[in-house]
Design brief:
alpha+beta; 9 helices; Rossmann fold; about 30% helix; 2 domains; ten-stranded mixed beta sheet; Alpha-Beta Plaits
């Protein structure tokens, strides 16, 4: 049997050329868990971005439901001798499909790419079949677009950053969104004690889209990326997904004006990865996207291995590099914490 996955169009024509490769990479990673043995090919007959999925028999309902969360899915069709029968669209959003998209700002990472990043970690780790809601950490969350994407999965989310202005804007936006859509919610101000001394301010939202739904949490914490486990807890998160900064320093030690020796991003990640590993649950996975013009993929993988993480290499894990703009060629490094 064959299925056709029609892909979400992108406004940037040059980036659109990269979406087929990225969509196929994400789909291959997902199907390796969901439907081992499935074959993927680009379908050029429709003159639109489309992938062909070849399988021995019909996809069961659970697989189709999972594929609805593919970041670039526009529609899934069953190919019946050339006639396309629509069988699924994009997954329902636990909060709102527009939640990650409304807030606009310079340097914002595309929400569909962040969904791909989250899926890369989810389907690499051990919790992709979990019936219980998962928890995700973005240790450099900026204005929390990644958290909003994960919130639409129905997950508990926590984002940390050293930029108080970004966190404040994310907080104000999410509060207005919940109020406008009349979601039951409450906001709590907390303080997390740091082992190094002092504390980290936290704004915690607890909310439910409907009165009968289980309440979910979204937290924003003003925190150095290298203090994650000490402040947020060990073995606390199923997934870590983060789009690393391309030129803005998110390290409290460096942001005071101290000049970093060598590659500042490598310095930051080298300090942070042991903490991020400690914050992951055993079997949990981490996906980090980065500008490959600033740091090489194998260098980031080496830092992950030095922290005791199991790095994913070869095959699909080498297929995520893509052009973004003149100064940015983005790639993804993926690893998991041993059980």
């Amino acid at each position: 049997m064959h299925y056709k996955m029609l892909l979400w169009p992108h406004a940037n024509a040059r980036y659109q050329n990269e979406t087929l490769k990225l969509a196929a990479a994400e789909l291959e990673l997902m199907l390796a868990r969901l439907a081992p043995g499935a074959e993927i090919a680009v379908d050029e007959r429709l003159d639109m971005p489309c992938l062909d999925i070849g399988v021995n028999g019909p996809l069961d309902a659970a697989v189709i439901e999972a594929l609805r969360s593919h970041s670039l899915l526009y529609g899934l069709f069953e190919d019946q001798d050339g006639l396309l029968l629509p069988i699924a669209g994009r997954a329902d959003a636990a909060v709102g499909r527009d939640l990650p998209a409304i807030l606009k700002y310079k340097g914002k990472t595309n929400e569909l790419f962040l969904q791909m990043l989250i899926n890369a970690a989810l389907y690499t780790g051990a919790f992709w079949q979990s019936d219980a809601p998962l928890s995700m950490l973005d240790p450099m969350c900026g204005r929390a677009t990644g958290l909003f994407v994960a919130a639409n999965y129905g997950w508990d989310t926590l984002g940390a950053d050293v930029d108080r202005g970004d966190l404040k804007e994310a907080e104000q936006y999410f509060r207005r969104y919940l109020e406008y859509h009349r979601f039951k919610h409450n906001v709590t101000r907390l303080s997390r004690t740091l082992k190094q001394g002092g504390s980290a301010a936290e704004c915690r939202f607890e909310y439910a889209p409907e009165a009968h739904d289980q309440r979910r949490a979204l937290s924003l914490v003003c925190l150095d990326a290298a203090h994650s486990a000490g402040a947020l807890g060990r073995n606390a998160f199923h997934v870590i997904a983060c789009d690393l900064p391309y030129g803005v320093r998110h390290d409290a030690q460096l942001s005071r004006g101290t000049k970093a020796k060598g590659n500042w991003l490598e310095t930051l990640i080298g300090r942070a990865l042991p903490e991020w590993k400690a914050a992951l649950k055993p079997g949990g996975a981490m996906a980090l996207s980065f500008n490959a013009q600033n740091m090489k993929l194998e260098r980031l993988r080496a830092l992950m291995e030095s922290a005791g993480l199991e790095v994913m290499r070869g095959g699909i894990y080498d297929g995520f590099a893509h052009w973004v703009e003149q100064a940015i060629t983005r790639d993804i490094a993926i690893c998991r914490k041993p059980m």
